[in-house]
Every structure is written in C-alpha cells, then in structure tokens.
Design a protein that fits this description.
Layout lengths: L7 H52 L28 E3 L3 E5 L3 E6 L4 E6 L9 E6 L6 H4 L7
Antiparallel strand pairs: 1-2, 2-3, 3-4, 4-5
Length: 149
C-alpha cells in the first residue's frame, strides 16, 4: 500500500516547532515595533524642542501653545488641513503635551512616557528621559533612553 501524507506525530512535531519559534520571535517583534514608535515620538519631540529654542530666543520664554511655535504640526487623527493649536495633540500612538519647560509624549496604551525638558541638562543642554508604567518596566531599556529621575 502506498500511503501519501503525514503521520499525526510528524504534524505534532511541526506544530510544536512553529509554536516554539513563535514564542521566541513575537516578543522581539513587539520590542521592535515599540522602538520604532518611540523613535517617531522622539523625532517630534526633537523638532518641537528646536522650535522652542527658536521661540525662546525671540521671546525670552517658552511657548505653551503649539500654534505659537514655528513647527508645522498636523495631527493624523484629524483629517482637516488645520495646524495643531492648544497645548496638546494626539497621534495614533502618542498624546503630546506642551508645557512651559518641557514636552511629554505619553504612549496611548499607557506603557511609557517620554519627556524632553528644555535646557535643564549639563550646561543647559536639553534632556530626554523615559518613565515606564505598569508591567512595562523594561521599555526604557528597550528603546535605549535613560529613566527619568
């Protein structure tokens, strides 16, 4: 008799191997996604920080409203072509809040907060730090940003 196909044992071994590979690969995949999202937030934080430095040079204070800085920021949550106004706006992954001395980016699922404080570091250099929340205590290490003190 010429039977073609796989035995139940062969199928179970393949399913077990795929499960093991998935258990190893999925956490790494999610870490890469979080790192990419954090880098997007850092890009916005850096651009806003540079705009704040320019604003400070002209006004001797930092802006607390996005409409006051020379940075064309549009929310992807809003389909209109209007620039962002007010002290906060939201994207798919982060909520940004502009304050007098810093800007914060809070992850919408609540796992971490990135904060850029203007001119507070050594020699007045801007500092960016990370605050991890809840079960995601290692996210700051994953995205390679120092923890806020």
């Amino acid at each position: 008799m010429n039977n073609k196909g796989f035995t139940l044992l062969e199928l179970l071994v393949v399913v077990l191997l795929v499960g093991i590979l998935g258990a190893i690969a999925l956490p790494q995949y999610f870490n890469v996604l979080e790192r990419q999202r954090a880098m997007e937030a850092l890009g916005i934080l850096t651009a806003v920080e540079k705009a704040q430095v320019r604003y400070y040079a002209l006004n001797d204070s930092y802006a607390t409203d996005f409409s006051n800085i020379d940075f064309d920021l549009r929310s992807n949550q809003d389909l209109s072509d209007e620039n962002i106004t007010g002290s906060s706006f939201q994207t798919d992954y982060f909520t940004y809040k502009l304050e007098a001395r810093n800007i914060t980016a809070t992850r919408n699922i609540g796992s971490f907060i990135l904060t850029t404080t203007y001119g507070s570091g050594e020699d007045g250099i801007t500092e960016t730090c990370c605050t991890a929340l809840g079960d995601n205590a290692d996210i700051c290490e994953v995205i390679n940003i120092k923890a806020c003190s």
